[in-house]
Amino acid sequence: MLKRAAPRLVSFAGFIFAIATLAGGALAQQVAPVPKLKPTPVEAVQQVAKDAAEFEFLGALARTCFLPPSRSEDFRDIPAPYVSDPSKAPPRSSWYAEPAKVFDNLYFVGGKIHSAWALTTREGIILFDTIYPYNSEELIIGGMRKVGLDPKDIKYLIVSHAHQDHIGGAEMIQKRYNPRVVMSGPDWDLVEKVPNRFKTMAPKRDIVATDGMKITLGDSTVNLWFTPGHTDGTLSFTFQVLDRGRPVNLVYSGGTALVYEYTQPEWGIKNMQTYINSQRHVATKAKEFGATVLISNHSEFDNAYNKNRMLAGRGNGPHPYEIGPDWIQRYFTVTENCARATQIKLEQQPAAR
Ligand SMILES: [Zn+2]
Fold first, then answer.
1. pTM for the whole thing?
2. What is the pLDDT of residues 158-177, one digit of tens each?
């Protein structure tokens, strides 16, 4: 029996093989090999940005490469709805975040979406950005008190750019604590041109920032870099902080999201180029400065809200904000290439021709 069974098994296996070969052949005939599609010029630069971002800068990638432009800014010279009617301010649950001591001399006093930062020095505090008029009191003034800082010690207030989500508390802080206020020329001009739009927000003109300017207070120096594109006068910064006594160099990206309108492609193409040039400029300054930490004024871009929570459980581990010089360059590769992708899309608009 065994002797007879063996050839039968062999022929059965041969039969199965033949069927499989036939089926395979038929399949090959039915499903032609998929031709490799060449990426469009937009997809090609988006891919460069995606490869650079990995998981570290997903927020920056999503916002600058893939989400539609935010059209929240009202260009008319009228007060913001939450200024005319405070009940129109978003609910506290949508913006409240705990303050945090991020470095020995740098405190996060922002919210879930927008950030403000307090750099402490021997001679007082340098405050960066001021969020909205409706939450600067609780987040910045309240946040500083919560981490043991006295708002009366604010000696400099540096506003990265004149948008309502960053300049919102500047007038209140200037009036109450009388710090020197630093902003770029084009952004000082903007708030003076449309005073109603910045009602309750705009400080009185003070220091006009220029590229390469240094603001020194006590033992700290902040380098100011002119990085227009998000506004005509957006500023970015480099400065040193201390992590448990160890000096760490940091870059602060002051203008993040892309500003353009498909209805005005020519202006948008030009503005994207300004933004691209600024990203290259601040990337170079960050490299020269040896920056290993990137912060911003939107958690979407630097993940501050989540990193603060990681920091709370750090123990003896690495500092969650310290990502090294290569990742800093990757951030600017993301923003530069996403701006280029948008620029190509604008170039393809019929109105541009
Ligand atoms: Zn802005």
1. 0.88
2. 999 999 999 999 999 999 99
